[in-house]
Design brief:
Helices cover 35% and strands 18% of the residues. The chain has 312 residues and is α+β, with helices and mostly antiparallel strands. It has two domains: 87 residues, Phosphorylase Kinase, domain 1 (2-Layer Sandwich); 211 residues, Transferase(Phosphotransferase), domain 1 (Orthogonal Bundle), CATH 1.10.510.10. Helix 6 runs antiparallel to helix 8. The chain starts with 6 loop residues before the first helix and ends with a strand.
């Protein structure tokens, strides 16, 4: 696996993909694609295969492949191979089996600061790698963070590069992302930079620490209005036992001015994570899951359903 031929040494043409792989089970599906667990017949190795129906032109898929071809990192789901038939494109991806970070959050309600810091440290390392290679993810959210395995101490894997962008001059303008995670400058239809990923990481950290999102409204108009103003709070009693260093970490990321969002993650923020994880060790955050908390998790679920380009 991993040997590439044809089309600049990467894409491989094939008549029948089932001659190479056994299809074992469906892992997910969308409007024009399905993801299967497959086993390569020659080696017995298992992969996740994204099968995409061909359209006249699939710029999102082309972009995703262009990005994935450039990257290799222990916290990013890897593209192992790419096939094309007359009717489909087949992306052969590294198989991860631990499920979504979102699902573990739903099961636990919230994370301890120690656990949250370990998760975010790995996210920062992965995103820092992307930024150093000129790539902005643009759709970071709980559902796009996976556990490599079912182990409690499994590493985190970043996935779904359909909306990612290879920087040309450091400035982007397409309005895209997921409501609830998108940065103010994106909604304002202004040119923006890789700092939009910093904002999304701040939102993810906030949710991990308390179990609900910083921005939630029934109306997208009201939701976007709050995001543009960066209007959020550390509400009592949910944040009462969370350290000031953890709150400062969130404040540094969820702020309206993109110039103030640090983009050099490793030098600016990995130290901050060590600080807040070591000053507030908790076995479990004992904050009651009240009705508002449960309602907020519902809003997280609704936002996840809207993972798309908001206005391309």
């Amino acid at each position: 696996m991993g040997h590439k031929t044809a089309d600049n040494g990467w894409k491989r043409n094939i008549d029948n993909i089932r001659e190479v792989f056994d299809f074992m089970e469906v892992l997910g599906s969308g409007a024009s694609s399905e993801v299967f667990m497959v086993k390569e017949k020659n080696t017995g190795r298992k992969y996740a295969m994204k099968c995409v129906v061909k359209k006249n032109r699939n710029t999102s898929l082309e972009n995703e492949i262009a990005v994935l071809k450039r990257i290799k990192h222990e916290n990013i789901v890897a593209l192992e191979d790419f096939y094309e038939s007359q009717t489909h494109y087949y992306l052969v991806m590294q198989l991860v089996s631990g499920g979504e970070l979102f699902d573990r959050l739903l099961n636990q309600g919230m994370f301890s600061e120690k656990d949250a810091s370990l998760v975010i440290k790995e996210v920062l390392e992965g995103v820092n790698y992307l930024h150093k290679n000129g790539i902005v993810h643009r759709d970071l959210k709980l559902e796009n963070l996976l556990y490599y395995s079912q182990d409690d101490n499994s590493k985190i894997m970043i996935t779904d590069f359909g909306l990612s962008k290879i920087e040309d001059n450091g400035i982007m303008s397409t309005t895209c992302g997921t409501p609830g995670y998108v940065a103010p400058e994106v909604l304002g239809q202004k040119p923006y930079s890789k700092a939009v990923d910093c904002w999304s990481i701040g939102v993810i950290t906030y949710i991990l620490l308390c179990g609900y999102p910083p921005f939630y409204e029934d109306s997208e108009i009201l939701l976007f209005s709050k995001i543009k103003k960066a209007e959020y709070e550390f509400e009592s009693p949910f944040w009462d036992d969370i350290s000031e260093s953890a709150k400062d970490f969130v404040r540094n990321l969820i702020q309206k001015d993109p110039e103030l969002k640090p983009s050099n993650f490793l030098t600016n923020f990995l130290h901050s994570l060590v600080v807040f994880s070591s000053t507030h060790y908790l076995d479990l955050l004992r904050i009651p899951r009240k009705d508002k908390h449960k309602l907020s998790l519902t809003h997280v679920t609704q936002a996840a359903a809207n993972s798309t380009s908001l206005d391309s």
